[in-house]
Specification:
single chain; 238 residues; alpha/beta; Carbamate kinase; nine-stranded mixed beta sheet; two-stranded antiparallel ribbon; 8 helices; 11 strands; 37% helix; binds uridine-5'-diphosphate; ATP-binding; nucleotide-binding
């Protein structure tokens, strides 16, 4: 077995990544495909934690723009992340992978609450841990939750899975001439407003020297190559 360069990783998936070609909700085929990517990592000996967003169901800012109280909207957004995490746990378990959902919001009947030491224990026992409910606070994002949990669990690497190959000077979908950045610093990402993650998440990673890879989740096998040390996507460092 090839040695792993990164043994413990936290993978952030946006809620939208679960939609596939749909306009909202969850595409079961896409879910299974991502679950298989995670399965390959676990089979290679990695400890895997996941943070999944909720944008395929609700975003607080979007609801607030249509008149809803922002805090209520954010609560709905956080609950949406719990739903996505439950769906992913189900997909992982169907592949035979033990998985636990730990929520920052208390939803005792459906999953565990987040507890730092228990999360570490799950990871050490080879269980995939899905951190749900974001940070548990309104006005934050799941990028911030991913950064926070990555730092808390001492992840070797935070991976942000996207629909594009990495970090570009502009959105490569709308601007084909955008330049690709194979490696950059968090300060550069902030200075050039590169939208790698939101500023809160970037600053947390920067201040705690948490390396970040931004990569394309739709490239089959890329995650596995990444944790084995291949240069996949863009690397963001302090
Ligand atoms: N959210 C929140 N606090 C958090 C994380 C998320 O209030 O710590 C809410 C917020 O409304 C956000 C929604 O949950 O819009 C879904 O998360 P996010 O937008 O980060 O999901 P993604 O864009 O990754 O799908």
């Amino acid at each position: 077995m090839t040695a792993l360069v990164y043994r413990r990783i936290l993978l952030k998936l946006s809620g939208e990544a679960l939609m596939g070609e749909g306009a909202h909700g969850i595409d079961p085929d896409v879910l299974e495909r991502y679950a298989r990517e995670v399965q390959a990592l676990v089979a290679a000996g990695a400890q895997v934690a996941l943070v999944i967003g909720g944008g395929n169901i609700f975003r607080g800012a979007g609801l607030a723009a249509r008149g809803m109280d922002r805090v209520t909207g954010d609560h709905m957004g956080m609950l949406a992340t719990v739903m996505n995490a439950l769906a992913m746990r189900d997909a992982l378990e169907r592949l035979g992978l033990p998985a636990r959902v730990m929520s920052a919001l208390e939803v005792d009947q459906v999953c565990e609450g987040y507890a730092h030491r228990r999360a570490l224990k799950h990871l050490e026992c080879g269980r995939v841990v899905l951190f749900a409910g974001g940070t548990g606070n309104p006005f934050f994002t799941t990028d911030s939750a991913a950064s926070l949990r990555a730092v808390e669990i001492g992840a070797d690497l935070l991976v942000k899975a996207t629909k594009v190959d990495g970090v570009y000077s502009a959105d490569p979908v709308t601007e084909p001439s955008a330049a690709f950045y194979p490696r950059l610093s968090y300060d550069q990402a902030l200075r050039e407003d590169l939208r790698v993650m939101d500023a809160t998440a970037i600053v947390l990673c920067r201040d705690h020297a948490m390396p970040l890879r931004v990569m394309n989740i739709n490239e089959t096998g890329a995650l596995l190559r990444l944790i084995r040390g291949e240069d996949v996507g863009s690397l963001v460092v302090s």
